[in-house]
């Protein structure tokens, strides 16, 4: 089962309770940080657990058991026997704060560290996990599975449908993914749900065809009673679901229950009662419990609690307690009840494949690295989580012809620095001081006296980075002396060659820009990270258009010219996901925009291929925060003061002498900046 401990949980030989400081090693850094964060919150932040939970913890503590030495059976028995309250940790504010008592600290540390052992790090969202468990139980029934639990309780399930809001976690990787555009999302959401269920009915049951419906982004929670809220769409969607469908709900409990009650269709529903830790329980749960007493029998699925435990980015922890609500006098195996004819029947529109925001590619890659990256040492000594050769990211550089800049919106990206750095590359400059004097300090760490000396460049003047990007782009093969030397006319001007070829033979397959020059490597402070780019001109449109263009390129005379679209594919050997990559994406997008402008082409796309894609350990928290944010529209880019090239303009390169102000970025409304430290 994905992410689940397989077979019995192994006791660690010779283990003893975890104490503060025990987990200082690199391997345990994340675990330790989490534990310390949680314990600090309890002990220092003026919060305490309610007395009954405290009592439960004391009872546990009094057993004097060393959790790490206990056998699997013992641990499971102990968990089973614990008061239920223990699993519902709600934290109350209390004045004055509890004393920072070391027993308390130790106890809480042990409880939570043991939890982490059980739950593991890569659990899916509770809803997602339940679905996987249902699916996997069919393939490989295991006695502790949720499916078995349902079976023991005499409940059979035809299908499970899970609703959740999209947050950027692997947790929400839906089994059925339905993308929605902002406009029309309500119509499509309801329509898709109906279509999906109709298909399922057509198959006649048998298998459990589970689905996760990711609720499209919206203001559901703030706008609960308003028209068009997420909840309203969900409720409308429910009307399409018959009684053999088990409903899951993550964060919309009261609306779900209300829908169930009002529609009277479903005899039962499973609610995962969330306890947000440390900010108290989901307020929906109370309303739900009240209604449930009168109308439903409930069964709790307590001992499996750890199966659906999730580390919740940005909000501390969530513990989750799924409850099955069965309408009094009915069972889940009742015959399906048809939806009342009075229920609104939405017309089912065809689902158009609407692409998701491209920024999710970046966010999902970061998630993937955090969840599955290998913990590795690195040159800088910081340590990283790393994956090799992930799926490339691809960004469009125009929206119906309007130039677009893929500038991340889930944090503010420092655009002026990116443009200044790119113009600095193009100018062939290799001194970090040139950038620094424009107040762009991003290369200062690698050009500092101390860093140069540490590499043995003691004779080099401060800021001289050696034959790095700018030198290779404009003077590849020239003999590097220092950053002050004038290299005019020396070496290969790769940029000039690319521009000329784009103008004269857009079909060329050698449109390559390489900063990787093994002969110069020992002179560089840092070997190029973004090391290799290839350009390509496509001629989208009809076949006829293509033929027209081919005639054009072969010297044939045509009245209408088809404009080529310029694409760039970048290979980056080493990718600092937190700091460098947002810069690199924007930078190569800008370069492609510039090249398109000076060659009379339409900016097409940027494909970013990565080698070692890593997250520095000191960026984990910042990126977790970033992952909770929802992308906003990418900004538009206007280039001012540089007319588009056409054949009448001759051989003038047009790429030199640009200024930061020549780039006007419109409609960039990012989330706020997030500080991350650069490892040197
Ligand atoms: N470890 C490391 N990561 C990198 O990404 C990186 C290097 N080193 N060395 C060379 C270049 C320089 N690049 C950098 C360096 C720093 C930032 C940076 O600190 N960016 C901040 C804003 C900087 C500021 O406000 O001055 C950011 O929040 O994006 C970005 C790119 C990319 N490179
Ligand atoms: O444009 C850049 C430049 C650098 N980086 C990152 C990638 C690595 O974290 C370091 C370089 O260290 P190496 O040991 O040489 O790989 O800088 C980046 O992401 N983007």
Automatic annotation (TrEMBL):
Pfam family, one: Thymidylat_synt
UniProt key word Transferase: yes
Pathway linked to the protein: Pyrimidine metabolism; dTTP biosynthesis
Enzyme Commission number: 2.1.1.45
Top-rank taxon, per record: Eukaryota
Top EC class, one word: transferase
Sorted UniProt keywords: Methyltransferase, Nucleotide biosynthesis, Transferase
Active site: 529
Thymidylate synthase/dCMP hydroxymethylase domain: residues covered: 361-680
Keyword Signal: no
SUPFAM superfamilies reported for this sequence: Thymidylate synthase/dCMP hydroxymethylase
Annotated protein name in UniProt: thymidylate synthase
Species the sequence originates in: Humicola insolens (Soft-rot fungus)
